[in-house]
Amino acid sequence: MSIVAVIPARYGSTRFPGKPLAKATGKYLIQHVYECVRACDLIEKVIIATDDERIVRAAREFSADCRMTRADHPSGTDRIAEVAAELRAEIIINVQGDEPDMDSAVLETLISRMQAQPQIKMATLARRFTAPEDPSDPNLVKVVLDHQGYALYFSRSAIPFGRDSSRGLAQADQYLLHLGIYGYRRDFLLAMANMEPSILEKLEKLEQLRALQAGVRIAVDVVDYHGQGIDTPEQYAAWARSKQPTTPLQQEKP
Question: Which of 95, 121, 196, 244 gets the most CB atoms within 10 Å of its CB?
C-alpha cells in the first residue's frame, strides 16, 4: 500500500504572512515540518505543495521535493489534491505546514487505522486540552466524537458547551483539540476537491467540514501528543523560544 505525504504551504496567510519561511530557530518552519514527516518509516515520499516561488527556493535549500500549484485553491486539501492527481499512491497524508513538532508515532497511528479499516475515506487526529490552553480560543479547533471514534463536528467555538457551568464551558480535559493532519484515500481526496466548499466550511474556515457536511464519516484517533500548531506570530515566537538551547550558568572562579 503506497503512502505519500503532501505538506501544503501557502505564503499569504491572513494571520501570519510568510509563516512557512519564519526562521527564528535557524531552520524554516516548513523545514521543521518536512523533517518530522520524513522521519516516519511508513511514508514513502514527502512533497511540499505551494503557490509561491519563495517557498520553492527555500525548499531547495534543504533538498525537499516541492511542487508549484495554482494560487486560487480555497484550502490546503484542494492544494494537495492537485499534486495527488499526478501520484499513484493509495493513501495521501496531509500534514499542515504549521505543525513543526509532528512525530512519527502520531503519523503511524493515523496510517495504521486507515490500513486496518479500508472503509475509512478520511481520517484525522486529536488530543485532549491541557493547561494553560483555552478552549474558547478560536485559533484552537475543537472536535467532538461519537462512540465509534468518528467526528460529529469540528468548530472554532468551544464544543461541547457546558450549559450549567459558570463560564458556559466544560472542564478543559473534556475538550479535544484537533491536530493539523489528515489521511485520505486518493480517490476520495480527488472527489472532495471537486465538491463546492460548503456553508459550514465557509463560516468556520475549516476544510474538513466540507466532507462532514457531505455525509462522509471522518475517523478520529485521540493521541498523546503535545506539539503545538502555529497559527499566529505570537504562537511562533513562543514555540521558537522553546527550541532555543539553555545555557548553564557559569560558576565563578575562586
Answer: 95
